[in-house]
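User: I'm putting together a small comparison set for a docking exercise, and I want a reference complex before I start. The sequence is below, and the ligand is flavin-adenine dinucleotide. Could you produce the 3D structure with the ligand included, as structure tokens?
Assistant: Of course. I'll restate your input first, then give the structure tokens for the complex.
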Amino acid sequence: MRGSHPGSFEAAHALRDGSFPKAGTSPIDPGERYDLIVVGGGISGLAAAYFYRAAAGPAARILILDNHDDFGGHAKRNEFDFGGKIQLINGGTLGIESPRRYSAVAAGLLAALGIDPVVFQARHADRGFYPSLGLGPGVFFDKDTFGEDRLVKGKTSSPGVLEQAPLSNTARRDILRLETGQIDYLPGLSSSEMKARLSRISYRDYLLDLVKVDPSVIPFYQSRTHGEWGVGIDAVSALDVWPFGFPGFQGLQLDPGSAPHMGYTPAGYADGGSYEFHFPDGNATIARLLVRSLIPQAAPAGTVEDIVTERIDYGSLDRPDHMIRIRLGSLAVSVTSGEPASPATVEVVYLGKERFYTTRAKHCVLACWNMMIPYLCPQLPERQKEALRYLVKVPLVYTNVAVSNWQPFLTLGVSRIHCPGSFHSSVRLNPVTDIGSYRAPRSPGALILVQMVRTPCRPGLSERDQHRAGRAELLATGFATFEESIRDQLGRMLGPGGFNPARDITAITVNRWPHGYAYEYNPLFDPDWRKAEAPHEVGRARFGAIAIANSDSAAAVYTDAAIDQAHRAVQELLAG
Ligand SMILES: Cc1cc2nc3c(=O)[nH]c(=O)nc-3n(C[C@H](O)[C@H](O)[C@H](O)COP(=O)(O)OP(=O)(O)OC[C@H]3O[C@@H](n4cnc5c(N)ncnc54)[C@H](O)[C@@H]3O)c2cc1C
């Protein structure tokens, strides 16, 4: 179990529940003093340290605290050691992508770290590899949802594919109409009137009430939105899915000129959206590059290509003789600053190795999760704490499975499979990226990593309540349940291709992200906030010597948002 691994969250839950030993009783003060303490060692926290040092100079003393046993926050990697040969895969965030163009600040940081996503995409990513072997998308229809287990190869909009699906003739007819028809389901409305209507209706209701598909069609699409939104089509607006290529809008002639929501470009990621490239371990490489920049002793100097296979010297992260220190396994429990008018210093109490410690700094950036902040800083204004609590993060699970060979995928002709009714709703072979001395496996007889994604949620509730329910489910789900479900799903899905879970699965890592994506507002459930009054804007106000970063404070789930917010927070502090 990685992600929120055992040992990382129990004390924080006790703090929430009020069952926490009084933090102030007798924290040890080793006398450490810093210019900046950062709470949260994700990309935002690491970037905050980077920007602070850039502005304050190399003499700035900085401490970064994180409650996990590794840095990076959601940007963590999984390493699988196959007899001395390491294969990498992302444990959490993968793509250097955003539906918006990267700001000058975020793009500038990537450039300063040596990352050129456009050049790297051309040089290191082999997206054509699986298609060159005839592998493509597929759908796994499971018995519990569709009456029989069947893997169907190909896109359902392609001729001949739907015929193989275990669906009624009515469902097939309606899916074909939905996916290929050029029908205007909102006749008489202008494009902007259509958009207003589509923003207030779920995609599910759009399909049922306006497209008028048979209800048996719904299970086929229900989990299509899981990967992006963490909930099914019952809780995502039709307008939000339109830019992402969902069917049913072809005949509406919607004006692509204006973005539907939160700055998303009308063409989804395809245009205006920034980059495609990702490292073999996802954005963990960005976190590792930041750490190497902050603490040069942590990894040998070198290029971006080198860092992918470099080992981090964890022993050098927290040394008294370094200007910047990263202290893992350390949960901040109290952060106190003077009032806004008289900031003075910040005192941070944290739980380290079974002891409380106190330390002080001139400034503090809270790059941790928004909902944690009211527990750390009860002195914040009530309105600000309420706003911080509003943003309920999205729970997700990225499960990485090592299999002894991928011949069954080759036999069945699939490299990525959507599984609308299964425990994990998507499965795919690790994409092929070669960089530095790292080489992705290319022989079907070789060990490979398979990524499966699960999004726990409860259809029918509001989006935020679905996230709460999903998180509770995750907390109560042990590894044995995951393992059983993985073996069952892969066996039933790939069995016809010769896959035998008992023989072919060699390792499983479950990355739990109960506090995953930042909450982005949902037009179905959230009001239209007035400018500067949205919860993330109210919640991120500076308080004395404390400023607030993290992608939560942008209400946006992307790397660029985490970096931009770090920059803003540091600017606020240094403005005086
Ligand atoms: C599964 C998953 C996939 C994603 N995929 C992508 C993607 O492909 N592309 C993309 O751009 N974005 C993706 N994201 C979004 C990702 O959240 C952001 O891009 C970014 O990495 C967030 O960084 P952050 O530093 O703001 O927050 P985090 O990475 O969440 O870091 C915050 C850190 O603060 C720590 N913390 C919290 N409270 C305390 C405390 N009291 N004391 C000490 N430490 C504390 C947390 O444990 C955590 O380690 C994904 C997210 C998830 C969960």
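The first helix runs from residue 10 to 17. Residues 39-45, 65-68, 73-75, 92-95, 97-98, 331-332, 367-369, 372, 376, 396, 398, 513, 516-517, 550-551, 557-559, 562 surround flavin-adenine dinucleotide (CB under 6 Å).
User: Thanks, that's exactly what I needed.
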